[in-house]
Specification:
Oligomer: single chain
Strand order of the largest sheet: 1-2-3-4-5-6-8-7
Helix content: 10-25%
Radius of gyration: 14 Å
Shape: globular
Number of helices: 4
Strand content: 25-35%
Length: 157
């Protein structure tokens, strides 16, 4: 389980990351983005849970605001030792409350503390302007590389 600093969303709830367990997996699987975001994300976070379960590359976390599951995020370690963030999905009913930012602010230092870590990377569709703004505000810079039609951004350790 990641160490998550004391982070609050815009409504004052504590945002923490938790392992996906038998007790919370259904709530995580049911996380759904806004309809307008379905161009960039699956209809349900259940797809990301299956990736974590079946591909043995990604590791999923449940995003909690206080005791409520409000989102999903996953991470992986690349062959070169960098860490990748993927599958960041905040439920439509919970958007606009600073949860994506708080999730990243919890995950980034945890990844940085992993042995051999030197960079955190992620990719996003270049048309996803809110994602581009969020990641740039957290210090991610575009690398010039592309991954499956998405731009790659990096945050050095």
């Amino acid at each position: 389980m990641p160490h998550t600093p004391h982070l609050l969303d815009a409504t004052g709830r504590a945002v923490t990351l938790h392992e996906v367990t038998a007790a919370n997996w259904r709530s995580v699987a049911d996380i759904a983005p806004l309809d307008s975001q379905r161009t960039f994300a699956p209809a349900l976070a259940g797809r990301y849970l299956l990736l974590s379960l079946l591909e043995n590359v990604w590791h999923s976390f449940a995003v909690h605001a206080d005791d409520k599951v409000v989102g999903h995020v996953m991470w992986a370690r690349d062959e070169d030792g960098s860490h990748w963030v993927g599958g960041l999905l905040i439920d439509a009913s919970e958007q606009g409350k600073g949860l994506a930012r708080a999730t990243m602010r919890a995950l980034i230092p945890w990844l940085a503390a992993q042995p051999g870590h030197f960079a955190t990377r992620l990719s996003y569709d270049p048309a996803n302007v809110p994602a581009a703004r969020l990641y740039a505000s957290l210090g991610f810079t575009l690398t010039g590389a592309e991954e499956d039609g998405e731009v790659v951004a990096e945050l050095p350790a």
